[in-house]
TrEMBL record:
<feature type="region of interest" description="Disordered">
    <location>
        <begin position="160"/>
        <end position="183"/>
    </location>
</feature>
<keyword id="KW-0175">Coiled coil</keyword>
<dbReference type="InterPro" id="IPR012312">
    <property type="entry name" value="Hemerythrin-like"/>
</dbReference>
<feature type="region of interest" description="Disordered">
    <location>
        <begin position="135"/>
        <end position="154"/>
    </location>
</feature>
<feature type="compositionally biased region" description="Basic and acidic residues">
    <location>
        <begin position="169"/>
        <end position="183"/>
    </location>
</feature>
<feature type="domain" description="Hemerythrin-like">
    <location>
        <begin position="5"/>
        <end position="118"/>
    </location>
</feature>
<protein>
    <submittedName>
        <fullName>Hemerythrin HHE cation binding domain-containing protein</fullName>
    </submittedName>
</protein>
<feature type="compositionally biased region" description="Basic and acidic residues">
    <location>
        <begin position="142"/>
        <end position="154"/>
    </location>
</feature>
<dbReference type="Pfam" id="PF01814">
    <property type="entry name" value="Hemerythrin"/>
</dbReference>
<feature type="coiled-coil region">
    <location>
        <begin position="66"/>
        <end position="129"/>
    </location>
</feature>
């Protein structure tokens, strides 16, 4: 049994915060920790987009916050891709890491003060556990995904969550541009 989706998401948030501290305080660990952070954050975001955001939008009446969260995921994924391309010893790495920490910390604060409490109030425990199982399964299937390399199906989910219309008639590059513009 996976557990309550709200608790699972918050556990991931705490792990990402722990990884950020390690990356900031122990530069020698960066070559090993960047792939771990990248895998976790990408899998977490894609699982939220696929399983949690549609329920938050439809069942907990969180359409505006979901669209905003989707935009923040896109921003974090762009920064994460940039972090992966940057030499860990460089000053540029420090800047990109700082930008990523700031963006993700902002997103976590908003999500934990709006979407997640409302989901806890509006969705019963059985539904949150059902979403928890779907979230864990989706997150597991996305472990190893690389930021900036979303499939067309994942981009369509991002477009739907962000309120982009007409995405089903677009090719992958057009969807990616529209999702980015909505950011």
């Amino acid at each position: 049994m996976a557990g309550d989706v709200v608790d699972l998401i918050m556990q991931d948030h705490r792990e990402v915060e722990r990884l950020f501290r390690e990356l900031e305080q122990h530069p020698e660990k960066r070559p090993l920790l960047v792939p771990v952070l990248s895998s976790l954050l990408t899998a977490h975001s894609r699982a939220e987009e696929a399983e949690v955001y549609p329920a938050a939008k439809g069942e907990a009446d969180e359409a505006e916050d979901v669209a905003h969260g989707q935009k923040e995921h896109a921003e974090a994924e762009q920064l994460l891709a940039k972090l992966n391309e940057t030499e860990p010893e460089s000053k540029q790495f420090e800047k990109v890491l700082s930008d990523l920490v700031e963006a993700v910390t902002h997103h976590v604060k908003e999500e934990e003060s709006t979407v997640l409490p409302k989901m806890r109030r509006e969705l019963n425990e059985a539904r949150r556990r059902e979403l928890g199982e779907a979230f864990v399964s989706s997150r597991t299937s996305h472990l190893g995904d690389r930021p900036g390399e979303a499939t067309k199906r994942e981009l369509l989910t991002q477009a739907r969550n962000a309120g982009v219309t007409g995405a089903s008639k677009m090719d992958k590059d057009e969807i990616a541009r529209e999702v980015a513009k909505s950011s």
